[in-house]
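Q: Structure tokens for this one, please.
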Amino acid sequence: MNTPLLTVTQLNQYFSHQHILKALTFTIQKGHIVALVGANGAGKTTLMKSILGLTSFTGQIYLNGQSITPCHHQALSAVGALIEYPGLYPFLTGRQQLSLFATGANRTARVTKIIEALSMQAFADILTKHYSLGMRQKLGVALALLNQPALVILDEPMNGLDPQATKELRDLILWAQAQGTTFLISSHLLSELQRVANDVLVLDHGQLIANMSMPAFLAQQRPTYELVTNQDQRAYQLLRSAGYHLVAATPIRVLITPGFQLNPLLQLLLTNQIQLQRIQPHTEDLESSLLTMLKTVNH
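A: Here is the predicted structure, written as tokens:
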């Protein structure tokens, strides 16, 4: 078993009389990309701020065996982060800000490399007070990755990015992972998280309700066939009367249960003069799996 990079044990966080984070315990393995997901207000940003020592908490957080507390930040020298919106110096250019925060050897080369990786050349030498939201977001991500940290924490990193910039960020994250960087990423763009993440942490009202690999999380929901006919309402009633397990009506989705056979279903539609226009297997994605889990937990 690999030694985890990050270990969180019995983490609790309170705001006034509200219990925000509730006894969270989990680990993050070195070199993994972890998706942190949940509804608004679930506690995702608060958890990230706790790991960064930016808010008070009880419990234990260890990074590479070093303790992190609001008063002890030595371990955080190996962490890069973008939480909410980047704080930038308005009268410095993007390149100047990167140069200001670059540490170690080959600083100029690393600044140039991150600018090119995120296609920032067109605005790297403009004062950041003139930056758009997407430009600011790119620079914030660049600052988080600049010093090749062991752990990168990103809160809504795709916010304000167009499709091309989102792809560039995705490629950069996967490249950094190949070099050994570990990521904890929260985003409402769940399809993007599904493309890159190895593991999933699900928060709901401050509680950790799932902690597993991405394939295991997606496999919780059984596959279905998705049908479109020329008489969907009639087809739905017919299939339900015939004992098929239906999980949606528009489009019709038939649950693939043990012993399920497709040919009898098709014959049933044909016999009743219902024309099948499209049929395709449907597997759950991160978004639908998350919504199903949250609905189950809260009912």
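A few notes: The domain at 4-219 is CATH 3.40.50.300 (Rossmann fold). The chain has a mean pLDDT of 92.
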